[in-house]
TrEMBL record:
Keyword field: Cytoplasm, Fatty acid metabolism, Hydrolase, Lipid metabolism, Serine esterase
Name of the molecule in the record: Acyl-protein thioesterase 1
Main location: cytoplasm
Reaction(s) the record says it catalyses: S-hexadecanoyl-L-cysteinyl-[protein] + H2O = L-cysteinyl-[protein] + hexadecanoate + H(+)
Annotated Phospholipase/carboxylesterase/thioesterase domain residues: 7-223
Principal EC category: hydrolase
GO biological process: fatty acid metabolic process
Compartments where located: Cytoplasm
UniProt EC number: 3.1.2.22
Organism domain of life: Eukaryota
GO cellular component, one term: cytoplasm
Species, as recorded: Imshaugia aleurites
Role summary: Hydrolyzes fatty acids from S-acylated cysteine residues in proteins with a strong preference for palmitoylated G-alpha proteins over other acyl substrates. Mediates the deacylation of G-alpha proteins such as GPA1 in vivo, but has weak or no activity toward palmitoylated Ras proteins. Has weak lysophospholipase activity in vitro; however such activity may not exist in vivo.
Length: 230
């Protein structure tokens, strides 16, 4: 699965020592989350960090009557976490995100200085890719997200995998009508049962969107996971 456009990249302001790969949700593009990095830049935050905003390919989406839109995998139903997932599409996107991680490593950035995360569908693929990644990451985050292939997740995650000690940040609005709050809670519970440390934050009154407090909390998480080296 090759995305329709190359990722948008916000380079580090100083020596490049870390990277955040930030995945958008269904129907969006990397441009949709670019203002986050621009805000960090205006405040001289994460100056050693590059931000990579990938663009999903246009694919037919079943819940939208087969119409094409940017997506990391098909969504066949808005049922619940136990409903059928587009396993081939999920695995192709996982491989693509692993290739982005490899590209950063080839630039000289240690995997332990790379954070992978995203919003909604982008957060879901980031959680799945992150916990199954063969390289040890600095952090994994999912905003308004859920666990993909959760009934098969142990087939893809080794019990002694390199990211078992990688802290995970999750944020979710308690009135999200699209990716239900309960799905986020259940995802956090499953991950904790599998041994992960998950910081799950609830945002009162937030629907399927991001919240300034949530972004502030995520910024603190990134601060902890990617401290400046110089």
């Amino acid at each position: 699965m090759a995305p329709t456009a190359a990722p948008l990249i916000v380079p580090a302001l100083t020596k490049h020592t870390a990277t955040v790969i930030w995945a958008h949700g269904l129907g969006d593009s990397g441009l949709g989350w670019l203002p986050i990095a621009e805000n960090f830049r205006r405040r001289a935050r994460f100056s050693e960090c590059a931000f990579v905003f990938p663009n999903a390919p246009n694919i037919p989406v079943t819940v939208n009557f087969g119409m094409e839109m940017p997506g990391w995998y098909d969504i066949t139903t808005f049922g619940d976490l136990a409903q059928a997932h587009d396993q081939p599409g999920i695995l192709k996107s996982r491989d693509y995100f692993n290739s982005l991680i490899k590209a950063e490593i080839e630039k000289g950035i240690p995997s332990s200085r790379i954070v992978l995360g995203g919003f909604s569908q982008g957060g879901a693929i980031s959680l799945f890719t992150g916990i199954s990644c063969p390289d040890r990451l600095a952090g994994i985050f999912g905003l308004s997200s859920y666990l993909l292939l959760h009934d098969k997740i142990r087939d893809y995650v080794k019990s002694d995998g390199p990211n078992k000690n990688t802290p995970i940040f999750m944020g979710h609005g308690d009135v999200d009508p699209m990716v239900r709050y309960e799905w986020g809670l259940d995802t956090s519970k499953i991950l904790k049962e599998m041994g992960w440390t998950v910081d799950f934050r609830t945002y009162k009154g937030l629907e399927h969107s991001a919240d300034p407090k949530e972004i502030d909390d995520l910024e603190k998480y990134l601060d902890e996971r990617l401290p400046p080296l110089s």
